[in-house]
Amino acid sequence: MFDLISISEAIKRSYDSEGLLVDVRSEEVFKKGHIPMAVNLPFEEIMNEKFDIEAIEKDFNIEKEQPVFLYCDTGSTSMLAAKKLDSVGIHAYSVVGGIMFYKGYLEKEKNDLWTMVRTS
Prior knowledge:
Layout: E1 3-5, H1 7-15, E2 20-23, H2 27-32, E3 39-40, H3 43-47, H4 53-60, E4 68-71, H5 76-87, E5 92-95, E6 105-110, E7 113-118
Parallel strand pairs: 1-5, 2-3, 2-4, 4-5
Antiparallel strand pairs: 6-7
């Protein structure tokens, strides 16, 4: 069974290399602004029948034992993704409230340059 985690705890544990922070929103939304340190693994990709966990582990340099902290906009999509990852043996956490509960800086892509913007 997947677990729930607060956004602050997920960021802290990710920063301390105790897991991987994963944004499950679409690539387009991810590029418009995401939490620093987060990688993008869209929900549609996770839910795809051809989802290849070994390829994901290799792409993001994670091991099956390493937890992943999933966030979306509100927390509902990340719960579904966490359930799916848990079913294939990944210890997944869903961030309660999603990025809406995050009050820090967001990285965003603009003209192929990464910049920092403040969320309100």
